[in-house]
Structure formats: structure tokens, C-alpha cells
Amino acid sequence: MKTFYRSVFISDTHLGSRWCQAQKLVSFLKNVRCERLYLVGDLLESKKAMKTSSWSRSQIEVFNQIHLKSLEGRVVYVPGNHDYCMRDFIGRQFGNLEVQPHAVHRTADGKRMLVLHGDQFDKAVSLSPWVTRLGDLAYNGALWLNLWVNKLRHWLGMSYWPISQFLKHEVKTFIQMLSAFEKLLQREAKRHRCDGVICGHIHRPAINHMGDVLYVNCGDWVESCSAVVEHEDGSFEILYRRDVKKPAFEAKASFKVTYPAFSEPIPLGLVSMLAE
Fold first, then answer.
1. CATH value of 3-275 in 3.60.21.10, 3.40.50.2300, 3.40.50.1980, 2.60.40.10
2. PANTHER family of this UniProt entry (predicted)?
3. N or C: which end of the chain has fewer CB within 10 A?
């Protein structure tokens, strides 16, 4: 039986990336019901999405689950820096799915929460593209290291250790110190006269207070496999899906869509599905 939450927030799924934990995300989406689903940026990888029409079955099923959620309630999509192609559709609405640069969510207990991806407040992205590129290469290298280290740990009978997440957190913490990421988000929430902010981008799930502003980060579906949910009393909780095992083999399926309003294969079926 599905668990009901008033609202569900997910970010940084990075569909199209080999590191996306799509099967775990599908399992999560299948087991929750909600009035509102927020896609808080980096749903997919724009560069890879525009180059391929072949998707794993689990990734296709993510789109199917989003489609079902749009039939059950409201879906708000706030694009991030990795799915920048979707920013061309900001202000458009497709059935119950709307694409917005940011959103203001009102909780059950009356709090106003600013919902945005957060990349616009990361100075490493906005001021130094080459630093971002170097960071992406280092992160991919860390994920490869994570893969082989944990294969060895499994063979030795040891538990899983997210080495790439540890390394990434140390780097991201340094970047946050330089760019004052959380402080800028706090200021932005106040500028919008909100009581808190819900974001993604740094792949670090968190719920904490920064002064009188509530800071909520959804985490990601690359390593943390986390989402933030709002209960019926307006409180927030981080949920994880680490216990769901990904199949050893996933068959590939052809997934090419056409939508007469667009001249290029974006948004790779997401809009096409939801507009049906």
C-alpha cells in the first residue's frame, strides 16, 4: 500500500547519466502518493539527453511514474544547471505539470517555502565554468573509484562505503565556504518573504535551521538516493532508498519520441508524455 505525503521533493536524479539510480527512484515513486510533486532541478543530463534516444527501462519507468503523478496531482518542475534545456519551457504548462524558474510552496501549517535548484548561487558555476568542468571530471573519477573500491569491499565481505560521496562532500564544503551558498539561499528566501528554502544542487540531504530560515536540501539519486517529504502536519522528513537493490542487468529499450511543437528531441519524452 502506498504511503501518502502531502508533498514530495526530489532533485538531482541525473537521468541519462550512467550513475543515475533510476531503479531505486522508480521503487520510491511507486510506493508514495502525494498531492504535489516537485522536481527540484537536474532531473536529467541535457547534453546526453539530446544525443541519445536509447534509455534503460528503469529510466523510462521514471518518466512513466512522473506522468502518473501528474494525473493524481500537481507536478512542478524547476530546472537546474544540468537540465538547462528545460529552461526553454519555463512558464509553460503541460496538463498538471508546470515548468517554473522557482516556486513558493505553502506548507500545511502555513509556512512559505521557496523552491529552487540553487545553482544560481554557486559561484563556482556562475563565475568559473572551467572550475565546474574540472570538478565534474574529478567527480566522475571519484564515482569510478567508488565503483571498484566497493566491489572489492563486497568481495571481502565488507559493507558499502560511499567513498565518492565522502570526497565530494569535502570538495563541496570548500566551495560552499567560498561562495557562501547557504547564506545566499537564506537571503533569497527572505527576499521572497519566505520562511525557508528547499533546494538541491549540492547532493547533500539536509534539514536544519539557519537563523530563522529553514534550510532543506533534497539530496540526490546518484548516491544518497534521498527525497524530502512533507507530512500532513507540515513537517519535513528526509527519506532514503538505500535498501533497494539495483538489478545486476538492465535491458536497453529504444525510447525515441516526437512532439510536433518541438524541432529537437527534447525534453526526451517528458513533456510529450505529460502532454498526452
1. 3.60.21.10
2. BLL8164 PROTEIN, UDP-2,3-DIACYLGLUCOSAMINE HYDROLASE-RELATED
3. N
Strand partners, 9: 38, 228
User: Cβ atoms within 10 A of the Cβ of 248, count?
Assistant: 5
Q: How many residues does the chain have?
A: 276
Contact 240, 224 (CB under 8 A): yes
What's the CA gap between 213 and 34, in Å, rounded?
Answer: 25
Task: Show the cell assigned to 271.
Answer: 513533456
Which of the 8 DSSP states describes residue 262? -
Residue 230, amino acid: E
Does residue 219 come out as left (phi exceeding 0), alpha (psi in the -120 to 50 range) or beta? left
61 vs 276: CA distance, rounded Å: 16
Can you give the residue ranges of every domain in the chain?
3-275
Three-class DSSP category at 140: helix
- Over residues 160-218, the pLDDT tens digits come to 656 565 655 555 555 555 456 778 888 899 999 999 999 998 888 889 888 899 999 99
Report yes or no: 220 and 203 within 8 Å, Cβ to Cβ. Answer: yes
Instruction: Scan for cell 514530495, then name that residue.
Output: 8
CA–CA distance, 40 with 80 (Å, rounded to integer): 7
